[in-house]
Protein backbone atom coordinates (compact mmCIF):
# COMPACT_ATOMS: atom_id res chain seq x y z
CA UNK A 1 0.00 0.00 0.00
CA UNK A 2 2.81 2.45 0.90
CA UNK A 3 4.26 1.93 -2.57
CA UNK A 4 0.90 2.50 -4.25
CA UNK A 5 0.21 -1.16 -5.04
CA UNK A 6 -3.53 -1.52 -4.54
CA UNK A 7 -3.68 -5.26 -5.22
CA UNK A 8 -6.87 -7.05 -4.13
CA UNK A 9 -6.74 -9.77 -1.50
CA UNK A 10 -8.68 -12.78 -2.78
CA UNK A 11 -9.77 -14.16 0.59
CA UNK A 12 -13.36 -14.95 1.46
CA UNK A 13 -15.28 -16.95 4.02
CA UNK A 14 -17.06 -16.57 7.34
CA UNK A 15 -14.06 -17.22 9.57
CA UNK A 16 -11.75 -14.56 10.99
CA UNK A 17 -9.37 -14.71 8.01
CA UNK A 18 -12.28 -14.27 5.60
CA UNK A 19 -13.62 -11.31 7.59
CA UNK A 20 -10.16 -9.77 7.60
CA UNK A 21 -9.91 -10.19 3.83
CA UNK A 22 -13.32 -8.53 3.36
CA UNK A 23 -12.33 -5.62 5.62
CA UNK A 24 -9.04 -5.19 3.77
CA UNK A 25 -10.80 -5.17 0.40
CA UNK A 26 -13.20 -2.42 1.56
CA UNK A 27 -10.27 -0.42 2.88
CA UNK A 28 -8.38 -0.92 -0.39
CA UNK A 29 -11.31 0.36 -2.46
CA UNK A 30 -11.80 3.42 -0.24
CA UNK A 31 -8.08 4.22 -0.24
CA UNK A 32 -7.78 3.86 -4.01
CA UNK A 33 -10.75 6.17 -4.48
CA UNK A 34 -9.20 8.68 -2.09
CA UNK A 35 -5.88 8.60 -3.97
CA UNK A 36 -7.72 9.15 -7.25
CA UNK A 37 -9.48 12.17 -5.73
CA UNK A 38 -6.18 13.60 -4.51
CA UNK A 39 -4.69 13.12 -7.97
CA UNK A 40 -7.64 14.93 -9.53
CA UNK A 41 -7.32 17.79 -7.03
CA UNK A 42 -3.63 18.10 -7.84
CA UNK A 43 -4.43 18.38 -11.53
CA UNK A 44 -7.13 20.96 -10.83
CA UNK A 45 -4.78 23.01 -8.65
CA UNK A 46 -2.11 22.97 -11.34
CA UNK A 47 -4.61 24.08 -13.97
CA UNK A 48 -5.83 26.95 -11.78
CA UNK A 49 -2.30 28.05 -10.92
CA UNK A 50 -0.93 27.84 -14.46
CA UNK A 51 -3.55 29.83 -16.35
CA UNK A 52 -5.64 32.97 -15.94
CA UNK A 53 -7.82 31.91 -18.87
CA UNK A 54 -11.08 30.36 -17.65
CA UNK A 55 -11.33 28.32 -20.84
CA UNK A 56 -8.20 26.48 -19.66
CA UNK A 57 -8.56 26.46 -15.87
CA UNK A 58 -12.23 25.51 -15.43
CA UNK A 59 -12.67 22.41 -17.68
CA UNK A 60 -10.45 20.22 -15.43
CA UNK A 61 -12.78 21.10 -12.53
CA UNK A 62 -15.83 19.94 -14.51
CA UNK A 63 -14.04 16.75 -15.56
CA UNK A 64 -13.06 15.94 -11.97
CA UNK A 65 -16.59 16.56 -10.68
CA UNK A 66 -18.10 14.20 -13.25
CA UNK A 67 -15.42 11.54 -12.83
CA UNK A 68 -15.91 11.26 -9.07
CA UNK A 69 -19.73 11.43 -9.02
CA UNK A 70 -20.60 9.90 -12.40
CA UNK A 71 -22.98 12.79 -13.02
CA UNK A 72 -24.98 12.94 -16.24
CA UNK A 73 -24.00 16.59 -16.63
CA UNK A 74 -22.01 19.32 -14.89
CA UNK A 75 -22.46 23.06 -15.27
CA UNK A 76 -20.38 25.92 -13.89
CA UNK A 77 -21.96 29.37 -13.94
CA UNK A 78 -20.05 32.63 -13.61
CA UNK A 79 -22.33 35.53 -12.70
CA UNK A 80 -25.16 36.45 -10.34
CA UNK A 81 -28.86 35.64 -10.46
CA UNK A 82 -29.66 39.35 -10.86
CA UNK A 83 -27.46 39.63 -13.97
CA UNK A 84 -28.85 39.63 -17.47
CA UNK A 85 -28.62 36.41 -19.41
CA UNK A 86 -25.78 37.62 -21.58
CA UNK A 87 -23.77 38.53 -18.45
CA UNK A 88 -23.73 34.92 -17.20
CA UNK A 89 -20.91 32.81 -18.56
CA UNK A 90 -21.43 29.05 -18.45
CA UNK A 91 -19.13 26.06 -18.81
CA UNK A 92 -20.49 22.54 -19.20
CA UNK A 93 -19.51 18.90 -19.41
CA UNK A 94 -21.60 15.79 -19.98
CA UNK A 95 -24.23 14.46 -22.36
CA UNK A 96 -27.22 16.34 -20.90
CA UNK A 97 -25.37 19.42 -19.65
CA UNK A 98 -26.87 21.62 -22.38
CA UNK A 99 -30.42 20.66 -21.40
CA UNK A 100 -29.64 21.45 -17.75
CA UNK A 101 -29.21 25.12 -18.69
CA UNK A 102 -32.96 25.57 -18.21
CA UNK A 103 -32.42 25.64 -14.43
CA UNK A 104 -29.36 27.91 -14.40
CA UNK A 105 -31.07 31.15 -13.37
CA UNK A 106 -33.20 29.54 -10.66
CA UNK A 107 -30.26 27.66 -9.14
CA UNK A 108 -28.05 30.75 -9.20
CA UNK A 109 -30.57 32.56 -7.04
CA UNK A 110 -31.26 29.60 -4.75
CA UNK A 111 -27.67 28.83 -3.84
CA UNK A 112 -26.89 32.50 -3.36
CA UNK A 113 -29.72 32.76 -0.82
CA UNK A 114 -29.66 29.30 0.72
CA UNK A 115 -26.13 27.99 0.23
CA UNK A 116 -25.36 24.41 -0.90
CA UNK A 117 -28.42 22.60 -2.24
CA UNK A 118 -29.04 18.87 -2.63
CA UNK A 119 -32.23 17.41 -4.13
CA UNK A 120 -32.30 13.62 -4.02
CA UNK A 121 -35.58 13.33 -5.95
CA UNK A 122 -36.18 16.20 -8.34
CA UNK A 123 -39.78 15.18 -9.03
CA UNK A 124 -40.64 16.16 -5.45
CA UNK A 125 -39.10 19.63 -5.76
CA UNK A 126 -41.76 21.21 -7.98
CA UNK A 127 -42.41 23.88 -5.35
CA UNK A 128 -38.78 24.96 -5.45
CA UNK A 129 -37.78 24.62 -9.12
CA UNK A 130 -39.44 24.38 -12.51
CA UNK A 131 -38.34 20.75 -12.75
CA UNK A 132 -40.49 19.95 -15.79
CA UNK A 133 -37.79 21.55 -17.94
CA UNK A 134 -35.25 18.84 -17.17
CA UNK A 135 -37.27 15.76 -16.18
CA UNK A 136 -36.89 12.85 -16.79
CA UNK A 137 -33.27 13.22 -17.97
CA UNK A 138 -32.28 14.82 -14.63
CA UNK A 139 -33.78 13.25 -11.50
CA UNK A 140 -31.48 14.55 -8.74
CA UNK A 141 -28.97 17.33 -8.37
CA UNK A 142 -26.45 19.05 -6.15
CA UNK A 143 -25.57 22.75 -6.45
CA UNK A 144 -22.81 24.67 -4.68
CA UNK A 145 -22.16 28.43 -4.51
CA UNK A 146 -18.85 29.89 -5.64
CA UNK A 147 -17.55 32.41 -3.12
CA UNK A 148 -14.23 34.22 -3.01
CA UNK A 149 -13.96 35.93 0.35
CA UNK A 150 -17.45 37.50 0.56
CA UNK A 151 -18.04 37.87 -3.17
CA UNK A 152 -20.61 35.60 -4.80
CA UNK A 153 -19.19 34.59 -8.18
CA UNK A 154 -21.59 31.91 -9.43
CA UNK A 155 -22.47 28.26 -8.93
CA UNK A 156 -21.32 24.72 -9.68
CA UNK A 157 -24.12 22.19 -10.12
CA UNK A 158 -24.37 18.57 -11.15
CA UNK A 159 -27.37 16.64 -12.49
CA UNK A 160 -27.94 12.88 -12.30
CA UNK A 161 -30.17 10.62 -14.38
CA UNK A 162 -31.38 8.74 -11.30
CA UNK A 163 -32.50 9.52 -7.77
CA UNK A 164 -29.66 9.27 -5.30
CA UNK A 165 -28.34 10.29 -1.90
CA UNK A 166 -25.18 12.38 -1.49
CA UNK A 167 -22.58 11.19 1.01
CA UNK A 168 -20.41 13.56 3.04
CA UNK A 169 -17.10 12.64 1.39
CA UNK A 170 -18.58 13.29 -2.03
CA UNK A 171 -20.03 16.63 -1.00
CA UNK A 172 -16.75 17.68 0.63
CA UNK A 173 -14.86 16.88 -2.57
CA UNK A 174 -17.29 18.96 -4.64
CA UNK A 175 -16.97 21.85 -2.18
CA UNK A 176 -13.20 21.72 -2.66
CA UNK A 177 -13.68 21.86 -6.43
CA UNK A 178 -16.07 24.79 -6.01
CA UNK A 179 -13.42 26.58 -3.97
CA UNK A 180 -10.84 26.02 -6.70
CA UNK A 181 -13.29 27.33 -9.31
CA UNK A 182 -13.88 30.46 -7.23
CA UNK A 183 -10.13 31.08 -7.01
CA UNK A 184 -9.77 30.67 -10.78
CA UNK A 185 -12.61 33.09 -11.47
CA UNK A 186 -11.35 35.66 -8.94
CA UNK A 187 -7.83 35.50 -10.41
CA UNK A 188 -9.19 35.96 -13.92
CA UNK A 189 -11.23 38.98 -12.84
CA UNK A 190 -8.26 40.55 -11.07
CA UNK A 191 -6.10 40.03 -14.14
CA UNK A 192 -8.78 41.53 -16.36
CA UNK A 193 -8.93 44.63 -14.16
CA UNK A 194 -5.14 44.99 -13.94
CA UNK A 195 -4.71 44.40 -17.67
CA UNK A 196 -7.34 47.05 -18.40
CA UNK A 197 -5.49 49.49 -16.15
CA UNK A 198 -2.17 48.64 -17.79
CA UNK A 199 -3.60 49.20 -21.27
CA UNK A 200 -5.13 52.50 -20.18
CA UNK A 201 -1.83 53.65 -18.68
CA UNK A 202 0.04 52.58 -21.78
CA UNK A 203 -2.38 54.55 -23.97
CA UNK A 204 -1.88 57.65 -21.83
CA UNK A 205 1.90 57.33 -21.89
CA UNK A 206 1.92 56.70 -25.62
CA UNK A 207 -0.04 59.85 -26.34
CA UNK A 208 1.83 62.25 -24.05
CA UNK A 209 4.48 64.50 -25.66
CA UNK A 210 6.74 64.05 -22.62
CA UNK A 211 9.44 61.40 -22.76
CA UNK A 212 8.62 58.66 -20.21
CA UNK A 213 10.73 55.65 -19.26
CA UNK A 214 9.46 53.05 -16.76
CA UNK A 215 11.72 50.58 -14.94
CA UNK A 216 11.15 47.83 -12.38
CA UNK A 217 12.83 47.36 -9.00
CA UNK A 218 15.80 45.70 -10.72
CA UNK A 219 16.28 48.74 -13.01
CA UNK A 220 15.14 46.79 -16.05
CA UNK A 221 13.14 48.61 -18.71
CA UNK A 222 9.41 47.98 -18.67
CA UNK A 223 8.22 50.67 -21.04
CA UNK A 224 9.56 53.44 -23.27
CA UNK A 225 6.93 55.69 -24.81
CA UNK A 226 7.19 57.05 -28.38
CA UNK A 227 8.37 60.46 -27.18
CA UNK A 228 11.30 58.86 -25.32
CA UNK A 229 12.12 56.69 -28.33
CA UNK A 230 12.34 59.81 -30.48
CA UNK A 231 14.44 61.80 -28.01
CA UNK A 232 16.97 59.04 -27.33
CA UNK A 233 16.72 57.34 -30.73
CA UNK A 234 15.68 54.00 -29.25
CA UNK A 235 13.50 51.09 -30.28
CA UNK A 236 11.38 50.49 -27.16
CA UNK A 237 9.94 47.08 -28.05
CA UNK A 238 13.41 45.60 -28.61
CA UNK A 239 14.71 46.96 -25.30
CA UNK A 240 12.06 45.69 -22.87
CA UNK A 241 13.47 43.89 -19.81
CA UNK A 242 17.03 45.00 -20.57
CA UNK A 243 19.09 46.68 -17.81
CA UNK A 244 18.55 50.42 -17.88
CA UNK A 245 22.29 51.29 -17.86
CA UNK A 246 22.87 49.14 -20.96
CA UNK A 247 20.39 51.27 -22.86
CA UNK A 248 21.04 54.79 -21.55
CA UNK A 249 24.24 56.18 -20.09
Describe this structure as you would to a colleague:
- The protein is an alpha+beta fold and 249 residues long.
- 48% of the residues lie in helices and 16% in strands.
- The protein is built from nine helices and seven strands; from the N terminus they run αααββααβββαββααα.
- It has a five-stranded antiparallel beta sheet, with helices on both faces. A two-stranded antiparallel sheet has the order 6-7.
- β6 and β7 form a beta hairpin.
- α3 runs antiparallel to α6.
- The mean pLDDT is 87.
User: Which H/E pattern describes the elements?
Assistant: HHHEEHHEEEHEEHHH
What would you call the shape? elongated
Largest sheet: 5 strands, antiparallel
What do the pLDDT scores average to? 87
How many strands in all? 7
Distance between the termini: 64 Å
Number of helices: 9
Strand order of the largest sheet: 2-1-5-4-3
Strand fraction: 15-25%
Would you tell me the structural class of the helices and strands? Answer: alpha+beta
Helical fraction equals: 40-55%
Rg over alpha carbons: 26 Å
Low-confidence stretches: none
Short description:
With 249 residues, the chain is an alpha+beta fold.
What descriptors fit this protein?
9 helices; 249 residues; elongated; alpha+beta; two-stranded antiparallel ribbon
Please specify the SSE layout and strand pairing.
Elements: H1 16-50, H2 54-57, H3 59-69, E1 73-78, E2 89-93, H4 97-100, H5 104-114, E3 117-119, E4 140-148, E5 151-160, H6 168-207, E6 213-215, E7 221-224, H7 226-232, H8 236-239, H9 244-247
Antiparallel strand pairs: 1-2, 1-5, 3-4, 4-5, 6-7
Helix pairs in contact: 1-3, 1-6, 3-6
Amino acid sequence: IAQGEMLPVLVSGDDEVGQLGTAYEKMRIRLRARLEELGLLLGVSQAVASSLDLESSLPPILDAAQFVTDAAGVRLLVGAASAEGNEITSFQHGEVAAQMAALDSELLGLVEREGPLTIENLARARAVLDVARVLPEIQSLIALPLYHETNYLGALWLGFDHTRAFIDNETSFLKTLAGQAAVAIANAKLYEVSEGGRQQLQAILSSTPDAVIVTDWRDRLLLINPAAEAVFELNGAALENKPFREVLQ
